[in-house]
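pls ignore typos typing on phone
zinc ion + seq
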Amino acid sequence: MTISIKRGGEVIVKFPFYIPHYIAQKFFASKVAWVKTHYNRLKEYTPTLPLAERRKLFAHHKENASALVVKESARFAKLLDVHIKSISVRNQRSRWGSCSARGSLSFNYRIILLPSALSEYIIIHEVCHLKEMNHSKKFWNLVETLCPDFKSRRKELRVYAKKLL
Ligand SMILES: [Zn+2]
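k done
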């Protein structure tokens, strides 16, 4: 037998046809404390935007994010005299950006939702990988030349990562 609570507060009890109702009721009664705990949390749930709206919003964010990362990456690539092969903006769950060995940069579209100091740090970080493909001391020194306060920006970024990623 299982009990599940849907977002919005619908409680569903499932049991096989051969189990008498009173047994199912007893089972449910034994789980009331659990149901109450989760019911209170789940009934507060506010539904997310409909899919079509979410797609529109995603497309909108992605477009703005692309414009930002293309412009800013080019600016820092010029300063470091490095070549960017391509730039893409994606829906990534666990990272803000990455740099491939071939010199392609990719960024999380959520970068557009960050304060500009933080999106700038992410872009600097990835562009620096075009020169230093690791997280060595040399790499961080390079980051520091373009972004002297990178340490505090990194720290602040972790707070946003918890909310946005
Ligand atoms: Zn890195």
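Residues 125, 129, 135 surround zinc ion (CB under 6 Å). The radius of gyration is 24 Å. more later
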